[in-house]
Model the fold of this input.
Amino acid sequence: MAAVAPFPEVLGQAAVQSALQRALESNRLPHALLFYGPKGTGKFAAAVSLAKVLLCEKKNGCGVCSGCKLITALSHPDLLITIPLPSAGSSPEKKKEEARQELYTNFLEKKKKNLYDPVWKENADFITVSDLQALQDRLSRRPMEGDWQMAILVEADRLQLPQGANKLLKTLEEPHKNTLIILIAERPKNLLPTILSRTQKFFFPPLSNEQVVGFAAKEFGLSKKEALESAAMATGSIAKLYFLQNEEELERRSQAWEVLKLTLAGQEASLFLALKQAADTRKKEEVLSFLSWLEFFLWEFFCLSELKQPERVVSLDLKPEFEKAASAQKFSFPYLVALQEVGKTRADLERNVNFRLALFWLFARILRAKGRG
Done:
């Protein structure tokens, strides 16, 4: 294949881009790739950029041929995108297929405008067995226009288990010529080891602060000061940057800080009232967002209090409060234990446990560990 230019749609990720370019130029691209890492680091953008090269008439992602234009519009017949969609009965006011198609169309429309848009998919549960069967059937046929066909599985770590995982495994075990499957995952540990072993893995680390600042200024028209503040809170994630434009996300951030502050102060009665408020939602993603902020603040406190590295605290608007709360601590707080417990609770939520009970048990365990300390 001819020399491939860097992917213009992808922010940073130099190591990933370089590895993909070498694989393309040497014609040694595996049939299955796993793009994994935090949300909002360019995994989908890289997958679409790779599709543009493979389905380009000049095989270099020229951006002007009909193949490239169809990829930009996410409408190329040989580009197959699968996302988690609601299961039957989750939208009783509409027919199932109408609701699914509406969500899918919304996903494509927003991604066409910006590949980094995280696209909130309310009530989207899993990649279903029926969708994987449809994908398998389509991949068994020849490409319709180009000489390659590509499948992108968004949130591949949200497969319907166990049937969905088995169906995907069968698809990976029976690769067709000039077919590329890209799995995009935030938590690859949720995938079966047999699936992981059949992919070449590419890690997407958080973006640099400068890259997020530039995106914030360009896409949201923020001033330099606003962009710097938003980028600090986004911690290398364009998805989090999007969410921060939403007042509800800022409220979840405030809730997470309030809960942690009450925990550090040992104000248990007020703490559980605050937890009740944080769990007062029917949307799992909102509770997971709350846990992400809590995780982030715990890490900052660990850097501030235990590692004595205040420069690693990037929540600049809260830093004075952090320092005040840290100086008031008479005993060491089990930050690392708390981080582990948050991870366990995140896994529990993926199994659809009760939100309020999950948060109450989380802080009961943290307070118990704090008491032992």
